[in-house]
Design goal:
single chain; 662 residues; alpha/beta; 8-stranded parallel barrel; 25 strands; globular
């Protein structure tokens, strides 16, 4: 192995942490400005000190990537364009993005900026890599939930398509798939897709039946002992998480990984000594996702620093005095680290003798054509319905309604039965989930070429790419997170999408400025159980209990369970696993938003309702056919103020997100 086969990528939440990363031997640093990045709680950089940071980093053979990895609102497009125009004038080495509209603007107006796909895009199959390659992404950060064989498959595919793979190797795990977690957003408008996650998964809940107070809290990720496997898999960038961590944490982790990489490249035996990694902040460590051996062992019932507990076990403490001795030793060690890091970064100067920069500065951004107003819509909007149970398939025979059937995330195991179901019900349309890993994505491709549906909705961009490649009409689902007009333009122009769902995270005001392409359908889900997150992990081991110690393939296919957890600061949440799919968490009440029909009459072309059997606290009176009829009557009313038959059938519901947005 040679050193140019790897990149050690370090977090830089502020200038001091960037200096620490450089001093420890990072090959690259990712950092954010004070806007448009997924760690708003970090101090972040300003345009005033960005050039100084770039000079320092480049003088030390370290690249700098700027995080613009959030969803962009329509009202922010002009500011983003000004920022990108500023960045073109710098020596920035790349920008990390989540928003497809932002990727579109980069491709068409700033082609010299190197684009990296954020982990918020949740990349886990080959179709997604092709999809992102089309938007000029030179690398993708893969989903943290993948095992080493899945990573190797994608890395090999990436090499064939000139796209590098980036993998998180150290730091915090999220309980949910990135980009698909809305729990903080639904709670208080602090969206993870806007860098404002309030980390409800780390909070205390009412003690569960299994006796746990922190049932969603995972240990930290560490692949320190897996470097050879990552090298063999073809991974290029090894990413350390931690933009809200302190400089001494960044230095310690990067320094240990730097030495480990150097050992591998020099043909030396790799270290198994994790003493220093346990000295700085950790929640204990796990590599279980990487090993494909995840389950109960990945949880820890304490979200705070585990260092004292770890070393108390190492030194076999048996008394309070023993533990105090460990605490003293740790304090002294951390003090030594902090002093050493302070001395190292004190040697590094950043040139501050430069003119102050501003988003309203002299550099002029390219002019974007004024988007035309949404054409007036006078006809009754079509209604689409989502189901997930076979006994509801007869609804597809109803007039004036499109019925979509939710395909399982574990599609490979169910492929023959799904093909038979759709062949027997030609009016039924497929709804593809956001998660389709490995063979399940390959099964989705087989399904598409076999069924050739007249229209499909997908929450997975890889399916969208394959649908386009095969001339199939497709709609970008709600979990593809469309929040601005340029995402709509991108989906239509680059991927031939027939339509897209507008994000339910947006408020009334945030929706107001979006303009849809004339020929594009814009869907909005006015009624649904509110999915807060989806997890590859088992959420029942810490709550209701499960006899299995770890998750296996049988769990995905056969398990269907439901429970609830009660956050001590908030409402209860519903935990439900549908047979064939991964675990999900839902709000206790379904979302119902009829106001949007009159507020955005000309923006929304299609209305959508989700009638899957997710057991929340919302009570539904009447059959699903009754519900469909009530919504059809609502659409015929076309927003007049008479009382609604829908609210007489469905209650209680919630609609806070539409008021507060993101």
């Amino acid at each position: 192995m040679t050193r140019d086969q790897f990149e050690l990528l370090a977090p830089g939440g502020d200038v001091e942490s960037i200096k620490a990363a450089i001093a420890a031997g990072a090959d690259a640093v990712y950092c954010g400005l004070d806007r448009f990045n997924a760690r708003n709680r970090a101090v972040n950089l300003t345009l005033d000190n960005l050039n100084g940071v770039l000079e320092l980093a480049h003088a030390n053979q370290c690249q700098v990537f700027l995080t613009l990895n959030v969803l962009i609102l329509e009202s922010e497009v002009a500011a983003v364009m000004r920022l990108l125009a500023q960045l073109v004038e710098t020596d920035i080495d790349g920008v990390i993005v989540q928003d497809l509209g932002l990727a579109y603007l980069l491709k068409h107006h700033f082609p010299t900026l190197d684009v990296h796909a954020s982990t918020q895009l949740n990349t886990h199959n080959t179709g997604q890599i092709e999809y992102l390659k089309k938007m000029t992404a030179s690398r993708v950060n893969l989903s943290r939930e993948l095992n080493i064989d899945e990573i190797a498959h994608l890395a090999h595919f990436g090499h064939q398509h000139n796209v590098l793979m980036e993998v998180f190797v150290h730091g915090s795990y999220c309980i949910g798939f990135s980009g698909l977690c809305y729990i903080s957003s639904a709670r208080n408008g602090a969206s993870g897709n806007r860098g404002r996650c309030s980390q409800p998964c780390r909070e205390q809940y009412q003690t569960t039946k299994q006796g746990y107070d922190y049932p969603l809290n995972l240990k930290d990720n560490s692949a320190f002992g897996d470097l050879q496997a990552l090298a063999d898999a073809g991974v290029y960038s090894l990413k350390v998480e931690g933009r809200i961590k302190k400089p001494h944490y960044v230095y310690t982790v990067v320094d240990n990984w730097r030495k480990q990489i150097d050992r591998l490249c020099d043909g030396e035996t790799l270290s198994q000594d994790t003493t220093e990694l346990y000295t700085v902040f950790n929640r204990d460590f796990s590599n279980a996702f990487l090993k494909g051996d995840f389950g109960k062992s990945m949880y820890i019932d304490n979200p705070r620093d585990n260092a004292v507990t770890h070393f108390s076990k190492v030194y076999q403490c048996t008394s309070t005095d023993d533990v105090q001795s460990v605490k003293k030793r740790l304090y002294d060690k951390k003090t030594d680290i902090i002093q050493h890091v302070d001395a190292e970064i004190a040697k590094m100067d950043i040139n501050s003798d430069r003119p102050k920069a501003s988003l309203k500065g002299a550099i002029e951004a390219p002019k974007l054509a004024t988007l035309p107003n949404n054409p007036e819509l006078t006809e009754t909007k079509p209604l689409s319905v989502l189901i997930s149970e076979r006994e509801d398939v007869a609804l597809a025979l109803e007039d004036n309604v499109d019925v979509y059937f939710q395909l399982p995330m574990g599609l490979k195991a169910e492929l023959p039965s799904m093909i038979a179901l759709f062949e027997s019900n030609p009016k039924l349309k497929p709804w593809f989930p956001a998660i389709l890993i490995g063979d399940d994505y390959e099964a989705a491709k087989v399904f598409l070429v076999t069924i050739k549906p007249s229209l499909l909705i997908t929450n997975n961009s890889g399916v969208g790419f394959y649908a386009q490649s095969n001339g199939l009409e497709w709609i970008a689902g709600p979990q593809m997170n469309t929040t601005n007009s340029y995402t709509l333009k991108c989906l239509e122009e680059e991927y031939s999408a027939a339509g897209a769902f507008l994000s339910n995270e947006l408020s009334n005001k945030q929706l107001r400025y979006i303009r849809r392409p004339n020929q594009m359908r814009t869907f909005y889900s006015v009624y649904h159980p509110n999915t807060l997150l989806t997890s590859r992990q088992c959420l029942f081991q810490q709550t209701e209990g499960c006899k299995k110690i770890k998750v296996n393939k049988g769990c995905l296919r056969r398990c269907d369970k439901r429970t609830s957890i009660i956050n001590l600061k908030d409402n209860p949440y519903v935990v439900q696993k549908q047979r064939g799919s991964h675990n999900s968490i839902y709000s206790d009440l379904n979302t119902l938003n009829l106001d949007v029909l009159s507020d955005h009459r000309d923006l929304i072309t299609d209305v959508f309702i989700d009638l899957r059997d997710i057991q929340t606290e919302t009570k539904v009176l009447g059959s699903k056919l009754d519900i469909i009829s009530a919504f059809q009557a609502e659409l015929l009313r076309n927003g007049d103020d008479s009382s609604s038959g829908v609210t007489a059938l469905i209650a209680p519901t919630r609609n806070q997100q539409y008021l507060k947005g993101i």
